[in-house]
Write a structure and sequence with these properties.
Length: 378
């Protein structure tokens, strides 16, 4: 089973990444990720969202599960994969929902996946969205991943642990992934997805009724793999919000985030670099204020500004640095409009972005773009 970044290659009969092929490792063993099994703290956010939607207190749950709620304020924090699984089971016990993972996946939204969700949302087809999921799954540092297999007119999406020797996914984690993926495919394409079969490697909990509203059928249990089986044509379904220009913007952010994960640990980086990392992690969902940033780092806005002053910079300087750097990169691409750039960088309107960019560089966005392209042509 091989992956393709722009769709399935019928002539080659395989999936590819950037023109090169790679065979997935044993589904039982999974695929090595970034060399550790830590997951981003943002993977805990959907658990808290689901708990609150059920009418419970997130703070009370954290106390019940002996979980440090302060970690939720640090978007750069990581927790072991085993801790995420423990929290899932604790949430099931706390809420009395023996199908907590299933129900959590059922209410998943694009934003729950961060930048990965935005890349999927603006992809061209379902095939492209699934390829993006696999390509940028490292951003989540998720403990599981997926691959696809085409056989005749059937598409099989298999979900398995990302790290060798991890064994099988826990029941709540595998059901969360299966239900969220199934629902997202439907939302992305704005279609009712014909699900042929859903299978899980774990045993049934006994009550199969909760699966019917989610999948429209009862899953098979005690199977070899966790699998969604759909019609092959689903891969060609166009994405409702497909936009090549926005995809280019969000994919650039995703690529930068992935590169960032290969660099030295953020906790050991200088304080301004940690702030910059935090700002990047917030995009494209929002651009953080100084107050939001201070709360994330467990201090007052005054203390944050003082610490930055000691480093010879300020929050405003770092905000300009991020926006200017990203804007200049986007303007080098002619197919991204000034309006799209203003939207991606969270300016109130294009004119506000144009004014800011002229203050930063002494040129309008249009003048800068023309200058860059003249240099490139020459």
């Amino acid at each position: 089973m091989l992956w393709l970044s722009s769709g399935y290659d019928n002539s080659a009969g395989m999936w590819m990444i950037d023109g090169a092929t790679e065979v997935a490792n044993s589904r039982k063993e999974g695929v090595a990720g970034l060399g550790n099994r830590d997951v981003t703290i943002t993977m805990v956010y959907p658990i808290m969202k689901t708990i609150v939607q059920k009418g419970f207190s997130a703070e009370t749950f954290c106390a019940y599960a002996s979980f440090d709620a302060g970690l939720l304020k640090n978007a750069e924090a990581r927790i072991p994969g085993e801790e995420l699984e423990r929290l899932m089971f604790a949430a099931a016990a706390f809420t009395g929902d023996d199908h907590f993972g299933l129900h959590q996946g059922d209410i998943t939204e694009y934003a729950d996946l961060g930048i990965l969700g935005y890349v999927m949302m603006h992809s061209r087809t379902v095939a492209d969205a699934l390829a993006a999921y696999r390509r940028y799954n490292d951003i989540l540092c998720s403990d599981f991943t997926l691959d696809c297999e085409l056989r005749d007119d059937e598409l099989s999406i298999r979900m398995y642990p990302q790290q060798p020797g991890h064994g099988r996914l826990s029941r709540h984690c595998s059901e969360d992934m299966a239900s969220s993926l199934f629902k997202l495919i439907g939302k992305l394409s704005n279609r009712a997805i014909p699900l042929k079969e859903v299978a899980f490697a774990h045993s049934s909990s006994g009550d199969t009724a909760p699966y019917l509203p989610v999948f429209g059928k009862v899953p098979l249990f005690d199977e070899r793999d966790n699998v969604l089986r759909l019609s092959r044509e689903v891969l060609d379904y166009p994405i409702l919000y497909s936009d090549a220009r926005l995809l280019d913007i969000f994919e650039s952010i995703a690529q930068q985030a992935k590169v960032k994960l290969t660099q030295e640990d953020a906790a050991e980086a200088p304080f301004p670099e940690r702030i910059i990392g935090w700002m990047r992690s917030c995009l494209p969902a929002y651009f953080p204020t100084v107050q939001q940033t201070a709360e994330t780092f467990g201090m007052s806005a005054r203390t944050l500004q003082h610490k930055l002053k000691l480093e010879g910079t300020s929050f405003n300087d770092l905000s300009i640095l991020i926006r200017k750097e990203l804007a200049m990169g986007y303007l080098k691409k002619r197919d991204i409009s000034v309006g799209d750039i203003a939207y991606a960088l969270h300016f109130s309107e294009p004119s506000a972005f144009q004014s800011a960019f002229k203050r930063w560089t002494g040129q309008t966005p249009g003048q800068y773009r023309e200058h860059v392209w003249q240099e490139h042509s020459g």
